[in-house]
Amino acid sequence: CSRPQKVCLCPFLPVHPLKVSTCLYIIQHPAEASRVLRTVPLLAACLPPDKCKILVGRRFNEDRYPELATVCRNPNTLILYPGAEATNLEEVAVMSSSPPVMIIIDGTWSQAKDIFYKNSLFRLPKQVQLKPNISSQYVIRTQPTNTCLSTLECAAVALSVMEKNKSIQETILHPLQALCSFQLQHGAQIHHSKEHLLKNGLYDKPMPKNKRKLRRMELLVNNVKI
């Protein structure tokens, strides 16, 4: 896990990489790659190297990333990104007959949005989303809403759906749970979502002056999907 011995997570990783047919391409924003408490390294440690490929950057085109362009044009490739045009992953998994490839964008919500909309390659695969029926266990980092998940959690849920194996989700979440436990024991605080803080009058930061950001916060308070 490349962490100090005192907070080593290796005992919480699977002894052998999980056997999965789904291949993940993690598109990681450069700012996320430099974070200390990022979840993608834990995800990669749970999977075979050929099933979890990480590409770091903001802009991806066919000239610089020919392999990625080929992947995006493959009819079996999915991109996990919520929205009005996204199909629930459970519906796609039922119809899937061949080993799929899934693209997941790793970054804050604004960073992920920037990558998704400014790279035309990512609009070629079929867009899918997860049902918002679980809460994030990544409690040491603030999420926008109660149902927003970390990249590792998204991958864990998606793989369990695609592979039709619930134990995959439990195995991948195990090191994340241990990570959060270690951090809380060493002084970290539980971070409630921004949605929770706003609704309960606990948000102690200055309200944004930007009208668009202010409107998004109003929508969170009023239970409007954003």
From TrEMBL:
* Reaction(s) catalysed (UniProt annotation): a uridine in tRNA + S-adenosyl-L-methionine = a 3-[(3S)-3-amino-3-carboxypropyl]uridine in tRNA + S-methyl-5'-thioadenosine + H(+)
Gene Ontology biological-process entries: tRNA processing
Give the signal peptide range. Answer: none
Out of the domains of life, which is the source? Answer: Eukaryota
**Cited InterPro entries:** DTW (IPR005636), DTWD2/TAPT (IPR039262)
A GO molecular function assigned to this protein is: tRNA-uridine aminocarboxypropyltransferase activity
The family line of this record is: Belongs to the TDD superfamily. DTWD2 family.
Q: PANTHER family, per this entry?
A: TRNA-URIDINE AMINOCARBOXYPROPYLTRANSFERASE 2
Q: Would I find Transferase among this entry's keywords?
A: yes
Locate the coiled-coil region(s) and give their ranges.
none
Reported EC number(s) for this entry are 2.5.1.25
- Species the sequence originates in: Acrocephalus arundinaceus (Great reed-warbler)
- Which keywords are on file for this protein? S-adenosyl-L-methionine, Transferase, tRNA processing
Q: Where is the DTW domain?
A: 1-188
> What enzyme category does the UniProt record give?
transferase
This protein's name:
tRNA-uridine aminocarboxypropyltransferase
Q: SMART domains given for it?
A: DTW
- Membrane-spanning regions, if any? none
